[in-house]
Amino acid sequence: MTQKHTTPDGLVIVDKPSGFTSHDVVAKMRGIARTRRVGHAGTLDPMATGVLVLGVERATKLLGHLALTEKEYLGTIRLGQNTLTDDAEGELTSSTDASAVTRDAVAAGVAKLSGDIMQVPSKVSAIKIDGVRSYKRAREGEEFDIPARPVTVSSFSVHDVREAVADDGTPVLDLVVSVVCSSGTYIRALARDLGAGLGVGGHLTALRRTRVGPYKLDSAKTLDQLQRELTVMPVAEAATAAFPRWDVDGRRAGLLTNGVRLEMPEEYAGSGAVAVFGPDDRFLALVEEQRGKAKSLAVFG
Fold first, then answer.
1. pTM for the full model?
2. Any idea which architecture 243-299 has in CATH?
3. Catalytic residue, candidates 45, 86, 87, 174
4. Annotation says 45 is catalytic
């Protein structure tokens, strides 16, 4: 008798290769894990590499909540050239000698793009405008505006400034940067806006995501590694890493899983999603506090 293959519930932290869309990685993981139930928490552009969080089986219910967490990146911004997509994948639209841009001017430009800011996403992005993806409108040559959105750039640091000459002979500056930001922040829009503020244009030439919430690059595996050995972070461990933890006794665990809204301790008020654990360390649910009671976001137990 053949043994039925069972896919474990949990998260898979992938080190995404360049040239793959997030959907490409999901499709690959469906083959590796032998299940259709795979999703991702927040997209990563095809050019970018690094941490992409996938959910397998029941862990897909965590993904919408994980997508909202803080992210960290390492990247390279080229000052002196604009592109259609605000990154190296797009067609060059203008070149300006950037050799006269000073380190002080760069620091001032970076400071303006730090903290709570309003950002206009790149036109070649997955944002929907009246139900249609922005990149689809852009590719069809449509003229349209994307409204600015509030984002938080907790940290925007320049680690190195390198003088270079672009392929078209323009003197440019390449900045090696790191960024810690809220969900929904576009690093290529930061590159575009930094270049615009300095009067020379700018775009992103390299990007590596090093962290999504608590999940870092050191725990990420390449697709080749996962093909050889599927490494899944159990759903309970993933929830403990990402959310505040609330332990309840057996009686309250039974009430919660039967749909009763439990009274929540005051310490969890305003803390967003909370992971509830019952006896024997069993992960029961993700809840959030609403008028002092636990509103279920996703039930696992």
1. 0.89
2. Roll (2.30)
3. 45
4. yes
